[in-house]
Amino acid sequence: MKVFYLDYHDITDNDINNVKKNLNSRYEKIKKCKNEKKFKQAIGSNILIMHAFPHVKDDDFYYNESGKPYLKNNDYFNISHSGNYIILAKDKYEIGIDIEEIKGSKNNLARRIFNDDEYLYSKDNDYFYLLWTIKESIIKLLGKSISFSIKDINAYEVINDGYTYYDNKKIYCLSRKLDNYYISVASKKEIDRIELINIQGDRNEK
User: Fold this and answer.
1) What is the pTM of this model?
2) CA within 20 to 30 Å of 13's CA: 38, 79, 199, 202, which one?
């Protein structure tokens, strides 16, 4: 599965103008954002969309009842961001993706979101973020609110078997690291690998 990524610090005025020109309706919503980092994350998300789907236009999008965007050509994508990075996964099937920067321990949160096996794993700080991205990517795949019972998603089972079951449906999840970040991708189809593609070089050459 291809996962495109970009450091929001690398976004240029030319990038902003390209989003404004090619995806103006989406840009009009983005420009209302007063926080510079969030503005650039939103611009970066659309840069990734344009890179992954070179012929995309404003009217190619539609949205479900939760506001999740889809493309009318039946290509699927999902976006996440954390720290410096914005990432996008694309596939022919519904997907969910999450990225988290590995920071300090979050023991209080771990007790709320992990089952007993996961909690023991999460005492290792790296494993906390691995487990968290697995759960979050599955939540995004299923279109669930983060307020639902996140403990029902068995990330410990994913680490051991590469898949888990939710609501009698088999869900596959694959993870890998990017610098000091964990990335997890979830799908109802088996994922053989994650191909990380930094689009910065491609954009500099155009």
Assistant:
1) 0.92
2) 79
